[in-house]
Design goal:
By secondary structure, the protein is an all-alpha fold. The protein has 8 helices and no strands.
């Protein structure tokens, strides 16, 4: 993921933490897929698997962050190497938080099941946005592996679609709850789940922004999508 250095061990260190990021990302992706399975099928066993794996994600975040600190202390990286290490530290934070959102989906699904929630609420938008979130995270990890700024810019643009699905679901949910107050409790649970999915998309977008930072050396956080794309393609 970086140019060759005089020290082959330095290259090995960078490659190792980069591969661990992708491993952690793969686990998060699996968590989200399983959480959506739990929701779509009201599968309590799947929900429990998501909750049980959360400790592993937390451990991986701490371990990778410690390795980043060790590399900075031992190698004193500069320029792009330093940006890579800093971006990795921020990326794993976003991955851990995306994993937290998957756990929230699983826990809220268990609550729906325990309350005997029916399918009174059409959750088509949640299903669509869940599939989008898995896809956008997978593409963000792939772009990270290749340090592909063009793909990263497209991910930032595509995150808008998840936001639109979320807003559409909120509008529909409000209508359900106004028409039938008995759906309010269930509706709020589904709103919580929809928000968690939207946040997963946000974390994938953040990872994409870090890719542009690594390659271009420009912090594109809080910039407009158009400005970010111009930077990525320049």
């Amino acid at each position: 993921m970086s140019d060759k250095h005089l020290s082959s061990q330095f290259d090995a260190d960078l490659n190792l933490i980069s591969s661990k990021v992708l491993e952690m990302g793969g686990l998060v992706e699996s968590q989200i897929i399983t959480a959506m399975q739990a929701l779509n099928e009201f599968d309590s066993a799947a929900a429990e698997r998501v909750i049980a794996a959360e400790d592993r994600l937390n451990t991986m975040e701490v371990e990778i962050d410690e390795e980043c600190s060790n590399i900075i202390a031992r190698r004193q990286p500069a320029a792009r190497d330093l940006r890579l290490v800093l971006a990795i530290s921020k990326t794993i934070t976003n991955l851990e938080r995306a994993g937290d959102e998957a756990e929230k989906i699983a826990k809220r699904t268990k609550r729906l099941m325990e309350d005997g929630a029916s399918r009174a609420v059409n959750i088509a938008e949640i299903k669509v946005s869940g599939e989008m979130a898995v896809s956008i995270l997978r593409r963000a990890l792939d772009a990270f592996a290749r340090l592909d700024t063009v793909a990263a810019a497209q991910i930032v643009r595509d995150d808008k679609a998840i936001d639109e699905e979320f807003r559409a679901f909120v509008r529909k949910l409000v209508s359900y709850m106004m028409e039938d107050p008995r759906t309010i409790s269930v509706g709020l649970d589904y709103l919580f789940i929809a928000k968690a999915i939207e946040r997963i998309g946000d974390h994938a977008k953040n990872i994409a922004e870090f890719i542009i930072y690594i390659v271009k050396g420009t912090d594109v956080r809080h910039k407009s999508r158009d400005a970010l794309e111009r930077e990525a393609l320049s």
